[in-house]
Amino acid sequence: MTVFQDSSPDSTNLRSDNVRADNVRSEAPDPDAPIEFRLQPGERYGWWEDHEPEDAHEVAMVHGAVNDCRTKILLDTGASVSMLCFDFARKLKLKLRTHKRMKVSGLGGVPTYISAHAEVKITLGPRVV
């Protein structure tokens, strides 16, 4: 488990089926390139989060425990590590191992800094994973 120091701003949650055709880049798309959209006047990063139907926010959240402390857990099968903020790490009373700050970027290329890590026991249902 990796702990990051800075809280990130609103993330962009864009869905291609909610965007007009004039928002898509005009040149021939590279099938391996990420899809890009321009923000419309009045829109901001995170705009879709406030304007999508409620059922569009469904994610794979489950009830579980980290080091025997109950919490909700986001299931992300493609992630090689999980990150959380220092405040939540303190609440869980994790034994953090600090190291030199390392810059990383995630969703939308928003940079943040990792400055500690911890090994944790994660429980889902009756099993430890």
TrEMBL record:
Residues 17-28 have a biased composition (Basic and acidic residues). InterPro entries: Peptidase_A2_cat, Peptidase_aspartic_dom_sf. Residues 1-16 have a biased composition (Polar residues). GO terms for molecular function: aspartic-type endopeptidase activity. Pfam families: Asp_protease_2. Residues 71-109 form the Peptidase A2 domain. Keywords: Hydrolase. Residues 1-36 are annotated as: Disordered. GO terms for biological process: proteolysis. The keyword Nucleotide-binding does not apply. This is Unnamed protein product. It comes from Phytophthora fragariaefolia.
